[in-house]
């Protein structure tokens, strides 16, 4: 076995930044490593909307294969892109401390935040812009659904590509703006001043967290990564992903979730929104930290009993299954 840990990563700027973060943290622990760059299907086809690409894990499959073929020892992923059911033979080695989990709106005209109901750093209750010529962009069905729920008259256009490509497309197109994960832009120093936090939008399960995957039982990899694991983030992201998988078996869907752990208490919020934005079911729960193993399932049971089941049934009928958990 080599003593230099081979770290697999996609080659986008964000992915390489994340893999380098892991490399630096390992170095501080005295673990030598090298980066191995791989291209994922999700990076090669940047036109098709994510929810239409058809298979799960478009961003992770290539790295999964490289792990299983013993070409790399660990893979660094944006955790929200990792299917809830990991590939057979692989396991989670660590979850790094979560960064900003929020979705943000990047706009172009100074008048746009106020038109959306955002004034002096605050969102008005539900003061919506109802103009019909308001078009925004995102490739995420979860973001589309939550946006249309709040702004039923708006139009949403598909936006794909890595964050650099997407920022460029926002400049080129005649859209009011586009939605991004704060973490993706902040990590590589690209968050523009012309952006606002979408405090009313719940994030994708595990958004803002970085997961390290390895071969099942690979003691060298597991031991090397053990102290990179942040217990609180690992618990919260596990609860969010359990909620997702209990609802849809892991397909990427208009399902959002956020768990926060404070003073021994898990505060969980989740929602399911129909892709047209018309119907929304929500769940909010406070549980003890000790209940983290069952928290996601309990929250899923609550939301199903409170309108969630009908929305899921309608999504199943349209055959809308997507990639990653975005
Ligand atoms: N689906 C793509 C993806 N996967 C992870 C991030 C950002 C980093 C993160 O959420 O951890 C992004 C970009 C985005 O959603 O804007």
**CATH architectural type of the domain at 103-197:** 3-Layer(aba) Sandwich
| Overall body shape | globular
How widely separated are the two ends? Answer: 36 Å
Bound chemical compounds: ligand PBG
Name the poorly predicted regions.
Answer: none
Biggest sheet strand line-up: 2-1-3-12-4
Radius of gyration: 19 Å
| CATH homologous superfamily classification of the domain at 103-197 | Periplasmic binding protein-like II
Largest sheet: 5 strands, mixed
- Fraction of residues in H or I helices: 25-40%
Overall residue-averaged pLDDT value: 91
* Helix/strand order, N-terminal first: EHEHHEEEHEEEHEHEHEEHHEEEH
Catalytic activity: 4 porphobilinogen + H2O = hydroxymethylbilane + 4 NH4(+)
Function: Tetrapolymerization of the monopyrrole PBG into the hydroxymethylbilane pre-uroporphyrinogen in several discrete steps.
Cofactor: dipyrromethane
Pathway: Porphyrin-containing compound metabolism; protoporphyrin-IX biosynthesis; coproporphyrinogen-III from 5-aminolevulinate: step 2/4
